[in-house]
Every structure is written in C-alpha cells, then in structure tokens.
Amino acid sequence: MRRRITAAVAGLVVTLTLAGCAPPSDPDWMPRGWSAHELRTLDAPPSPLSAAEVAGLAGERVRNDTLGLQARVVVVPGAEPVSTAALQRVRAAVDARAAAAGRAYTPEVFDRDAGLGDRLCVPGSTSQPAGAVLADPTLGPAGGTGTAVVCDVLAAAGSVLGQRIRTIDAEAGVATADRAEVIFADVVSGETVGARGLWSAEAAASLWSEVVDLLRREAGSLSLAPVPAPDPATAEQFAGVLESTVPAPDGSFVFTLPAGFTAPALADLGAAPTPAPRHIAVPRARVSVLASSLGLTLSGALASGAAFAAPEAPAARTGTTDCRLVPCVALTYDDGPGPLTPSILDALAAQRSAATFFAIGRNVAGGADTLRRMVADGHELANHTWNHPQLPTLDAAAVGRQIRDTQNAIREATGITPTMFRPPYGEYDDMVLRAAGLPAILWDVDTNDWQQPADDVLVDRAVNRAQPRSIVLMHDVHELTARVTPEVIAGLRDRGFTLVTVTELFGGTAPTSGAWRSAR
Amino acid sequence: MDVGDVMTKYRGSSRWRTAGITAVVVVIVCGAVTALALFLAPVVLPNLQTSVVDADRTERVTGASGTVSLMVPAGWSVQRESEDASHIVVRTPDALLAITVDLTAGDPVTAVRDAAIEGLGSPHLETVSTGARLAHAEAPDALVAAIAGVDDRVSGRFVVRPAEDVDLGAYRAEIARLLDAVRIES
Q1: Does residue A446 carry a catalytic annotation?
Q2: Which of A109, A232, A257, B50 sits at 20 to 30 Å (Cα–Cα) from A279?
Q3: Which stretches in chain B have pLDDT values below 50?
Q4: What is the pLDDT confidence band of residue A27, given thresholds at 50, 70 and 90?
Q5: What is the pLDDT of residue B8?
C-alpha cells in the first residue's frame, strides 16, 4: 500500500514536471524581418574613385585668373560625346563667369611650376565644404572670387562612366551658389544621362513608396498595407531626389534624401520630417527592377567587378580640343622621320599630347612605319619638301616637284595627304606659296635646337616662350631634342597648355593659303 | 499477569504506534503534494493548456459582441484555458514573446488605452492590408495593438509582452504579419 502511494505521488510529480514545467520552445527559431528587398540607410554615400587609378581617363583643367575661374573635369579619350558633355559644363561656367564679369574670355597660361599639369579630379572635392574648395589654390578661383568647377568620378565600370561636376560661385571666398550635376555616360553607345536617367520612368513613384515604407518602419509602423502611390506632383518632386544617385561597388544604387522629407503615412505615425539628409541604399535586386537600360548596364558591371572598358583611342589625344576654351600650343618637329622620332612619339603618348611632324620626302621610305604610327597616335603629318632646299632659290616647277613628290610619298606610306607645308629655313616668297599650293606653316617660337644648347636652355626656350596658339619649332633629328621632349611637354602642360596639332590650333580647319607664324 | 497477557498487551500498543506513524506519513506526503501542487500550479496548469501549432492555423476568440480570428503560424504555441475562453495567449516558437488576444468593445484607440498598461504612449493610427484601422502604442515593456471591426463597435486587442531583455524590435515584422491576418466579426 505504502509503495503504491509513493509510486503514485512520484508519477504525478514527474508527469506534471515533464508536461508543464517545460513550455514548448525552439531556441533556434529566428523572427523573420521585413520584406526581402528592403531599402536601408547608410551613414555616408559611396566614396568617389581616384581618377588616377582608372585606366583610360584623362583630365582637362582650365585656370583663368582674369575672370576668376578654375575648372577640372574628366574626359574619356575615344569617347567624344562623353567628353563633350563634361566640357560643356566647363564652357557654361566660363560663359557665365564672362557674362558676370562683363569681359570676354581668353584662355590663359601661367608661369612654369604653376602645377596645371595635374588635371584629374581631386577625390572628394564635390562633397567638401564649399569654403574648403574655394580656399584650395588647386581648385578655387584666384583670390576667392569667381567660379570653381570641381569633379569626382563616381563610377567607372564596364562601358559606363559616372562623374559629378560641381560648380561653386563665390565672392571673397564665400559661396554664393553651389550646384552639382551628375553625368553618367556609356562610352560605347555615347548615351549620356543625368543620375535620374539611371532609373526607369516608373522608379520615382515606386521608390517614394519604398522610402516611406522604410521610414514608417523606423517610426514604429506595424502595417503591412502597401504605401499608397504618390500623386504625380509628389512623384515628380521625388524624381529630383534621384538626381543624387550614386552607384556602389556592389551594384546597388544610393540616393540622398534631403532633410525635411515627410509623407501622410509618416505624419499619421507622429514622425517628424527627416531632420537631416539620409543616404538610402537600393539593393541590386531592386535596382534590377527599377533601373533604366543604362542603369542596368552599370549595376551589372559593378556587381561583376568589371573594370572600366575604355574605348580605343589614339595614344596622343584626349579628344578634340577646343582651343577657345583651353590654351593650346602646337609643338612641331621638322626634318624627320628619323631614328629618334619613335622616342619622341613615346614621350608624347605618355602625356597624351599631340604634335605635328613636318616630314622630309626623301626620309619617308625609311620611316614609313614611324609615319604610320604618327597617324595612328593622332598626330598630324605635314610636308617639309623632298630634300630641304631653299625654296626661293628654285623656280616654281621645282618648288612644285618638291611639294608634290613629298605629298605622294606621304600619301603612299600612310594614306594621308598633308594639308600644309613648312618651307625649309622658313624661307618663302609669293612664288613659293603659289607653287606649293598649300599654306605655309612657320613658327613664333624657335628653339634653335639645331644649335645644340644646354638641355635646360632648350627646355626654357620651348616652354617659357610659348603663348596660347603658339607654334614651337623643333627637330626630331637631334638627340638633344628627343632627350628633352618629355620635359618640354610636362613644362608646357604645367603652364596650362594643351598640346595640339597645327590644324587644331586653327580651330580644326587648317588655313588654305598664306603663311602663318601662329594661330593668333 | 502471565506471559500471554503481556504479549497481548504489547501487540495492541504496537498496532496503535504503526497506525500513528502511518497517519503522520500520510499527512506529510499529502501536505508535500499539496504544497508542490500549489507551487507548480500557476506554471504547470497554463502549459497544460498550451499546444504547439503544426501548420498555420486559424484561432478564434469569441466575446460578447463578436469574434476575432487570427492566423497563428506553424511552430507558434497557443494557450487557451477553455474552448469558450475570453482570451488566448500565443507565443513565438522561441517563447520569448507572448501575445494576449482578446476582444473588446469600442474603437481601436479606446481598446489600446483600455489595456491599462503602465507607461503606455499615445496610440498611432494606421491601416492594415484589409483596410481595417489599426491602433498601436508602446510601453517600456509591452506593445498594445488593436484592430477595428465593422463600425468600430468592437476591436481585437493584442497585448504583446517580450521576455526580459528581449528586443521587441526584432519581432515587429512578425507582429505586423500576425496583425495583418486578423479578421473581426461582430
């Protein structure tokens, strides 16, 4: 009996304990979050790239102290529409500044060591405080009054380049206007859009609703009801917010919601308008639904880790140069091609600088490969007679033969027919000009390199004497000339010059007759 | 007195002693069992009324003026005191969140306020996917939500209490899903 009672009590205790004291629990269970493609906020937008680390980019820089202007943008050699779109922003700033100052704009150059060879974007300059940009002598207008145009490379992947261009107007170091524009461009198709163009037409309304959904979650919402679509005016206003879109390395897109954003659903929750700008990341999965075709191309390239696919471009060129916007100078080399010419071509290519080569006809056969490289690299080929005679001492027929035979040789070797000639020793008269049938291109800066001066003397002559639209005479048959060419190019660029061909110096169309010492 | 008388007397006293000891033991055991039962009852009995949901299941709580039905996800547990209980308690599978569901008269804002939770903030109004009005407010250690039925005459009320040191924020999406599937019939 006693045993039965004991057993019954023990059984009851065990049963109660097992059944009741151990409530059902699965410690491995995790509560589910909100929907899978949710937006998220970031502390900061993605950092801009260092343009120097992106192969295939080049910089353009304009400094003009007369008007109070300094500008930098990135261009893509071989993608003319893309470069043009960027340079249009500089042109607009120049025109506005000229109008504000009531003066015409003329490209300026500066003394050596001006540092203007550094032309790429300064990373972060489009997000720095305006005061810091204006105070930076490499970015702001001299004296703090004028306009600064700065740039950042936001993305460079696959065929797409993204660049933000910021324009700051200032008086005495204080910004009076500050605006930024983002340009995304496909270097293959040439399509250029603003940041808003990375999104489809429907994206603004959809993203507005998703942003409201994100913010209402933060405000404590418990509703799963879809956020009502915005009215057209609100959607259009929000589309402007998408102009701030910056791609992230993982293919997601980030836009910045300005302070003061609100919506009825947020007001109902008692949420105040956003007190500060918010950086909203749209995950790639959502981007793939809402992006435009260009946006999809960019997002896909970023997600796959594709490098920037710079288009093929002539080695010596950044594109068509507008010598009304940037100070230009034409380096010219006479008497080649010769054994030293390739090293000069290397130096020019290394600094993406163009030159014009006045070739001697009798040298063409031995230097045909070099001539073809000149053409491929984007230099200009011109006629320097067959064997370098003093043309005024010849009769018209002989002058004609000197020019014609050289034209034929160059055309046969390269397929190019020169449109200008240079009379040996700079000697010409009316008979020579008539017989040649081409414009005579002379020079206004004679380096006298044939006199074999010291290296620094030759560099000084070439660099310091040049003015905007100058033509500089050198010879690609002297070792000294070949040796100092890298320093000459760097020195000219440092003063602010862009090195162009003679034809470019004349605005893209060479003169058809006459004799010219410069393009001024 | 002979030996036989002595033995008879001894046997009689032994029986009484045994009976006394037995009675004491029975009293002690019964007392212990009662004490144990009293101690365990508040914990044990509710759990005896708890079942774990194998697959998503609709639970109903019926009040004087209507019925609130909710979809309890698989893995969650439901504690119901009786078939016609005026409230139920559902718990997340990790048992760290308990939600008491009942039906109250009046609009959802009133239903939230009437929960009489200490420190409860002002209710916020939203709508759920069905278009029904949802009011909710939070206290330091609880969240109260109520969903309106037709004409706001009755509301389903949900008092959410997380276990100590549990972040309610991690469970908000689950709570929202639960609320979104609620239907009120009056």
Answers
A1: no
A2: A232
A3: none
A4: confident
A5: 64
CB A291 within 8 A of CB A199: yes
Residue A352 confidence (pLDDT): 95
The shortest C-alpha distance from A219 to chain B (Å) reads 10
Q: What number is the average pLDDT over the span A485-508? A: 97
pLDDT digits (tens, 9 = 90+) for A88-123: 999 999 999 999 989 999 999 999 989 999 999 999
Q: Choose among B52, B124, B127: nearest Cβ to A225.
A: B127
Q: Is A20 on the interface with B (CB under 8 A)?
A: yes
pLDDT, residue B116, reads 86
Q: How many Å apart are CA A370 and CA A337, to the nearest integer? A: 7
- Higher-confidence residue: B46 or A276? A276
User: What DSSP letter does each residue of A231-292 carry, written as one string?
Assistant: PHHHHHHHHHHGGG-EE-TTS-EEEEEPTT---HHHHHTTPPPPSS-EEEEE-HHHHHHHB-
User: What is the per-residue pLDDT across A404-448, written as a single tens digit (0 to 9) for each?
Assistant: 999 999 999 999 999 999 999 999 999 999 999 999 999 999 999
Is residue A25 less than 8 Å (CB to CB) from chain B? yes
- Decide the pairing of beta strands A355-359 and A328-334: parallel
Phi and psi at residue A451, in whole multiples of 5°? -80, -5
- Contact: A224, B128; criterion CB under 8 Å: yes
- First and final C-alpha spacing in chain A: 127
Active site residue A379: no
Chain B residues inside the 8 Å CB shell of A265: 126
Of A213, A334, A335, A449, which is the active-site residue?
A334
With a CB cutoff of 8 Å and minimum separation 6, the contacts of A129 are: none
Q: Model confidence over A34-87: pLDDT tens digits? A: 876 678 899 999 999 999 999 999 999 999 999 999 999 999 999 998 999 999
A102 touches chain B (CB under 8 A): no
Residues in B touching A32 (Cβ below 8 Å): 173-174, 177
Element at A414 (helix H, strand E): helix A396-414
pLDDT at position A14 is 56
CA-CA distance, B102 to B156, in Å (whole number)? 6
In A181-220, the residues whose Cβ lies within 8 Å of chain B are 217, 220
Which residues make Cβ contacts (< 8 Å) with residue B133, sequence separation at least 6?
Answer: B107, B108, B125, B126, B127, B147, B148, B152
CA distance A115 to A219: 52
Closest CA–CA distance from residue A223 to any residue of chain B (Å):
5
Kind and range of the H or E run holding A5: helix A2-20
Q: Residues, chain A, total?
A: 520
Nearest-CA residue of chain B relative to A22?
B47
**Predicted ipTM beyond 0.90:** no
Q: ω into residue A107 within 30 of 0, thus cis?
A: no
Q: Is the pTM of this model over 0.95?
A: no
Per-residue HEC secondary structure of A281-325 comes to EECHHHHHHHECHHHHHHHHHHHCCCCECCCCCCCCCCCCCCCCC
Q: Which of A379, A384, A475, A478 is catalytic?
A: A475
Contact status, residue B92 vs residue B76, Cβ threshold 8 Å: yes
DSSP-based three-state secondary structure for A380 = strand
Query: What pLDDT was estimated at residue A87?
Result: 95
Identify the CA nearest to A403 among candidates A433, A380, A373, A430.
A433
Q: Using CB atoms, pick whichever of A21, A220, A225 lies closest to residue B129.
A: A225
Nearest by CB to A24, from B22, B77, B170: name it: B77
The DSSP bridge partners found for residue A382 are A358
Report the residue from B48, B131, B145 with minimal CB separation from A19: B48
Euclidean distance between CA atoms A50 and A217, whole angstroms: 37
